[in-house]
Amino acid sequence: MDLHQLTPFLSVSPQITAADVGLAAAKGFKSIICNRPENESEDQPDMAEIRSAAERHGLAWHYQPVISGQITDADISRFRELMESLQGPVLAFCRTGTRCCTLWALSEAHHLDADAILNAAQNAGYDLSAQRERLQTMATHESENPVRATGRRHEVLIVGGGAAGQSVAGSLLQRNPDLDIAIIEPRQEHYYQPGWTLVGGGVFERRETVRNMSDVMPQQVKWYQAAAHAFEPEQRQVVLEDGERLGYSILVVAPGLALDWEAIPGLKDTLGQNGVTSNYLFDLAPYTWELVQSTRKGKALFTQPPMPIKCAGAPQKAMYLACDHWSRQSRLQDLQVEFCTAGAALFGVADYVPALMQYVEKYGIQLNFQHNLVSVDGSGKTAVFNVTDPEGNTTQIEKAFDMIHVCPPQRAPKFISESPLADAAGWIELNPETLQHSRYGDIFGLGDAGNTPNAKTAAAVRKQAPVVAENILRALKGEAPRAVYDGYGSCPLTVERGKIVLAEFGYGGKLLPSFPEWLVDGKQPSRFSWMLKEKMLPWIYWNAMLKGHEWMAKPEVLRHRPTEQEAQEACNFADKK
């Protein structure tokens, strides 16, 4: 629990869980204010559980949702009224605590000096200097509307501190250590998501896949521990959740994607119980391994939604590792395993399908193509699928299960899909080669939220980051981007414990192997590929990729094409020689 005391009466915190409520009660808090709207993000805990925990522990609960980046005078007045009516000490929380701190600061502006308010916020760990003008305005009652002045400005502003954001920052700093870079990222943890499949397969411990964000954030980078709310590309500004506006010369947008658990009715309510799991969540991957160990007979379902999704092979990986365990424990003959995919093929690149089919047949897996999961009844142990036949007709069927591993539908985050940066489908509109925005030349994007037709994997980011870094430095000089991305992505398909089919491919399904065939044939299961996945790639991720070391990832830079004048001058020079 991350508490920040503003006054003896009020402390603020990032998102809390139901388990944190008991700790809050033990620390003497009497009231809780939630300033975060429900369903603001896919990783948000269930609000009803937190409220129920507050009631159990005798804490007063107050729900005052405030929209990120849009703190109104009405919000401020309501917060002030709450503070005047509640029994303290009071704990207020939102996604990062910034909104709560800002509400408190603005609610105190009528009687406290702006410097005193900002110092108190700074001592609590929140930099609200961008609110100074609004604080002063409210103190003199000169305006009822928020001040919309631009705050601080950076040469390069990066939205997202995940694999993509950190990697491009690292690549930039390797090229120019003096570059002024800032990252907007609300999370306090950084996850190695490719490891979650191995957690679900009993190979990794969950703790091996997470580090403190502060430990991976470059020291030269300014970290805004807040959520981005909106983009104002015409003004070269990003709006944060507290209303602060950050300016930039170059913007990099790398927020990742959103897991849409709500799109499947019943799923969110039963995740982590009733045999329903998913390796797509840090908290649930260990439950996958628990289920694999405890399931001895019956039916096991593994699902895959319509594309695009990150790591399109992950649903299969979970299935193959489970089947390998059941086979080693002599349980597989008592289990009916089904792969239910919304797609029409086992894998998008045909060259790798024969090797995968050998394992499908070895494990006796039933393949159900064009089966899209649409609802889950956890207590009833049933799942409903929309099934599309070759003529395009859709019917619904119900399947019982003893265990189900679900890959959720995935979309761009709402603040991306509703922004000027999005294409018609809601993804960041990028040039697939240069990764420059198609309409805004001072904006680049990479990672899972882009609309480029590559596999959404960490391996893709490893190749994208150097391209973006190279093109950013050219853009800062006023030059056109010349580094190009070939669509490279990699999907190490864990077909059994100790062997992997190493799928590596680019745009159009072109095979792009990293190693000579005599060392590893990616189209066949390999122990070398398993060693790469288990031992080498995690180390490369933490110690090379995030730090900008571009081993086997140097960008291809197109040669400069001379203008007619340059060509003529070259010819004249040659004639003189």
Number of helices: 17
CATH topology tier name of the largest domain: FAD/NAD(P)-binding domain
CATH level-four homologous superfamily name of the largest domain: FAD/NAD(P)-binding domain
So what's the CATH class of the largest domain?
Alpha Beta
What is the number of domains? 3
Number of strands: 28
Helix content: 25-40%
CATH architecture level-2 label of the largest domain: 3-Layer(bba) Sandwich
The secondary-structure class comes to: alpha/beta
Regions with little confidence, pLDDT below 50 for 5+ residues: 142-149
Share of β-strand residues: 15-25%
Mean pLDDT comes to 91
Shape: globular
**Rg of Cα set:** 26 Å
- Give the end-to-end Cα distance, rounded to a whole number of Å: 75 Å
Q: Main beta sheet: strand number and arrangement?
A: 7 strands, mixed
Strands, helices and their partners?
Blueprint (H helix, E strand, L loop, with lengths): L3 E2 L4 E4 L4 H9 L4 E4 L12 H10 L3 E4 L9 H13 L4 E4 L4 H10 L6 H10 L8 H9 L12 E7 L3 H13 L5 E4 L4 E3 L4 H5 L9 E3 H4 L5 E3 L3 E5 L4 E4 L4 E9 L4 E2 L7 H4 L5 E2 L7 H10 L3 E7 L9 H15 L6 E7 L11 H11 L2 E3 L2 E7 L4 E7 L5 E7 L2 E3 L4 E2 L2 H4 L25 E3 L12 H19 L6 E2 L4 E8 L2 E7 L21 H19 L10 E2 L6 H13 L1
Helix pairs in contact: 1-2, 3-4, 7-15, 11-12
Architecture overview:
The protein is an alpha/beta fold and 577 residues long. It folds into three domains: 4-140, Protein-Tyrosine Phosphatase, Chain A, CATH 3.90.190.10; 153-257 and 412-557, FAD/NAD(P)-binding domain (3-Layer(bba) Sandwich), CATH 3.50.50; 261-411, FAD/NAD(P)-binding domain, CATH 3.50.50.60. 31% of the residues lie in helices and 22% in strands. The protein contains 17 helices and 28 strands. Strands 6, 7, 10, 11, 12, 13 and 24 form a seven-stranded mixed β-sheet that branches. Strand 6, helix 7 and strand 7 (181-184) form a beta-alpha-beta unit. Helix 1 runs parallel beside helix 2 (47-56), helix 3 packs across helix 4 (98-107) and helix 11 packs parallel to helix 12 (314-328). The longest helix is centred in the C-terminal third of the chain and has 19 residues, at 458-476. It is globular, with a radius of gyration of 26 Å. The model is unreliable at 142-149 (pLDDT under 50).
